[in-house]
Automatic annotation (TrEMBL):
Enzyme class: transferase
UniProt superkingdom: Eukaryota
Site note Lowers pKa of active site Cys, residues: 141
Protein name per Swiss-Prot or TrEMBL: Octanoyl-[acyl-carrier-protein]:protein N-octanoyltransferase LIPT2, mitochondrial
Family: Belongs to the LipB family.
Record field: catalytic activity: octanoyl-[ACP] + L-lysyl-[protein] = N(6)-octanoyl-L-lysyl-[protein] + holo-[ACP] + H(+)
Compartments where found: Mitochondrion
GO molecular function, one term: lipoyl(octanoyl) transferase activity
Amino acid sequence: MQGGRPVVEVVRLGLVSYQEALLLQQVYVNRHRSGPAHTLLLCQHLPVYTTGIRHKPYPATVLDHLRELGADVYRANRGGLITFHGPGQLVCYPVLNLSSFKKSVRWYVCELEKTIISVCSRFGINASTSPHTGVWVGDNKICAIGIHCGRYITSHGLALNCNTDMSWFSHIVPCGIEGKGVTSLSAELRRDVTVEETVPHLLDAFGEQLNCQLTDGHRPEPDGNSRGPSAEDFSGCP
């Protein structure tokens, strides 16, 4: 810490596959074994539909259809149902030790929600939470949130739609929530809002909301011995 505030290293991964992001998260989770190593991973994903734990697997014909669209399909071994990640979506994976912040998963999720609400406010968009997960603009979800926390070390995080091709969502019921829609910063503002434009606002809001100091970091190589978190680790989307 410096001046009593946790220091969080910001690592910009660029456009990466979902699988690579899982492995990189595990690299940073492992670093916490030798002391605080707070990190905020920022990325965009190649088109991918991720499915979580449910009573019955999705029919092979459904998954094959999604692949035919040009997206990968990945069983994420998390709670929740199906969602989409792709270019134009700002994906943030905070890997934090909550012992340096507050030992409360509920508090942490609320802080992520407040962070995104603040980002939206900076763009003049009135966003809010709802009984469902994530951050919403009316009945349309603009940001999905789903975390894992083991021994107070967090992974996974949030996915904010910036200028995502929203047609990808038309092939699924995002996160299994019937009767609701999805939106993006670009759709709400009726102009192109890129991930690059959004990142500074996200970093400012994250630093303010979690009362931490952000520093620039460098991307590591995935540890060949690392694996993605197991099935019981996840809840919600992404």
